[in-house]
Structures are given as structure tokens and as C-alpha cells.
Amino acid sequence: MTLQELQKQALQLPIDKRWQLVQTLLESLKQETYSVQKKGNLSRLRGIAKSTAVSINEDIATDYVTCLTEKYK
Description:
Radius of gyration: 29 Å
Oligomer: single chain
């Protein structure tokens, strides 16, 4: 079925069925758009937490060594 045939059939539907079709199509578009945006955001954030965690662990280790060095001088 071509797009023109589908449009012609949709226009022959009663108005309540056309509104239902419009709402269904809009909901479908919202879900697909949201999933694309969500995937895009996640791919940009990949690796951020890992690098932060490493620097925090190094800072903690450095602070601990400094504390022990000062304590047992």
C-alpha cells in the first residue's frame, strides 16, 4: 500500500477514528524520538564516571599516605 492510498483511506474514516489514528501516530513518534534522544545522551556520557572514580581513588590514597606519614614522623 502506498502512502497516497493510506492517506485516502484515513480521510474516509469517521472523525473519531481519525482522531484516534492521529493520537496513536503522535504517541508512536514521541516514543521513538525519546528513545533516540536517550541513546544519544548516554553515548555522550560514556566513560565520565570511570575517569572520575579513578581520580577520587588516587586522591584518597594520596591523602591516606600523607596522613600516615604525618602521624608516624
